[in-house]
Write a structure and sequence with these properties.
The chain is α+β, with helices and mostly antiparallel strands. It has 8 helices and 20 strands.
């Protein structure tokens, strides 16, 4: 029976970042298993591709710390290896007096998280920056940007492979059994069995299922669908524009984002599902128009077209409280050498390099 030192389950952006870091240490003793036909085929390829500053998350949380750290690392990585990105900046806009008060809360929270370049701007200054935007005031985040997530994932994949890591695509983990010195894994469709001293569960939407297969009590992960509509024609904005986020941590609101080609799209909204579904219903266009016209009142709704949907693995349910990432070794639950990464949604893309560093630290601290 083949013996592996470390198995990473999942080849989304976080699994790839973890693999690239671990390959520096384990090289040919590292295996990455992915159930899809290639890397980044689920959540990692269906998102806004935003490099977040670190405004939204409670101080001291993993999401806050890893977002701020990851954002700095990501920009440096892009500069060093010519990964396409652009630091466009973002306006979080308030259209009511109550929302103005919320901006002040977000400003204080962002600064406490270590986002040093945040600032409040007036309605007049907001009009100067983005004439099409309607706002009483705005929070300006210069360090927010966008990235070509596919280029980033390709970089991590190539780096891990060049250091000796093996990738097994179209391979799903069906069983995980504790065994002497680690874990015995069985994969489909070929029923291949191998042992691994350590397992890193980066399976995203399937992470809870993988964890339960090992016999670990795991919190429920909810499928949180987010649809996007693209804008056909020249964008009326040159920066990212976000509303004040809904209360309770239920998403960031339907926002305006740009890709590296300057194409505008709006989303995501938030809908909880029993199982993944990537269809975009054109009937949701009315909901999008209402939300966007609060801050872009002259939006030509005839130019909105359904584009795509993504599914986020959320620990927070539709009626639940805000939840942080779970990143831990399961030693205390009786599974040493099994590392769970659960509920890795936004800002997972931004935080990916910092998450990889944390996993390495957890391994070193064993």
């Amino acid at each position: 029976m083949e013996k592996i030192k470390v198995t990473v389950i999942g080849a989304g952006v976080v699994g790839l970042a973890v693999a690239a870091r671990l390959a520096l240490r384990f090289g040919h003793e590292l295996l990455v298993v992915e159930r899809r036909e290639g890397f980044g085929r689920e959540t990692s390829s269906r998102n806004s591709e935003v490099i977040h500053a670190g405004i939204y998350y409670p101080p001291g949380s993993l999401k806050a710390k890893l977002c701020v750290q990851g954002r700095r690392q990501l920009y440096e990585l892009c500069r060093r290896y010519d990964i396409p990105c652009r630091q466009l900046g973002k306006l979080m806009v308030a259209v009511t007096a109550d929302e103005e008060e919320q901006l002040e809360i977000n400003l204080a929270q962002g600064r406490e998280n270590g986002v040093e370049d945040l600032g409040m701007i007036t309605a007049g200054r907001c009009r100067e920056l983005e004439p099409a935007v309607k706002a009483r005031a705005a929070l300006f985040s210069p360090s927010t940007g966008i990235i070509d997530s596919h280029s980033l994932m390709r970089f991590y994949h190539q780096q891990a492979k060049s250091l000796g890591a093996t990738f097994a695509f179209n391979t799903e983990v069906k069983r995980v059994e504790p065994a002497a010195g680690g874990y015995l894994l069985t994969t489909a469709p070929d029923s291949f069995r191998f042992s691994s001293a350590m397992v890193i569960n980066c399976a995203g939407l399937g992470a809870a299922e993988v964890s339960r297969k090992a016999g670990i009590f795991t919190p429920l992960i909810h499928y949180a669908k987010g649809c996007y509509f693209s804008y056909n024609g020249k964008s009326p904005v040159s920066r990212l524009v976000y509303p004040v986020p809904p209360a309770g941590g239920h998403g960031l609101g339907i926002h305006a984002t740009l890709d590296l080609g300057g194409r505008l799209r709006f989303g995501p909204d938030l809908e909880y599902l029993e199982k993944p579904d990537y269809l975009v219903d054109n009937a949701r266009k009315k909901l999008f128009c209402r939300a966007v016209k609060r801050y872009l009142p002259d939006l030509d709704e005839k130019r909105l077209e359904p584009e795509m949907a993504g599914i986020r693995p959320r620990l927070q349910g539709p009626d639940g409280e805000w939840k942080d990432f779970i990143i831990r070794e399961e030693r205390e639950t009786g599974f040493p050498g099994f590392f769970n990464l659960l509920g890795i949604e936004s800002p997972g893309l931004t935080a990916a390099p910092a998450i990889a560093d944390l996993v390495v630290k957890l391994l070193e601290d064993r």
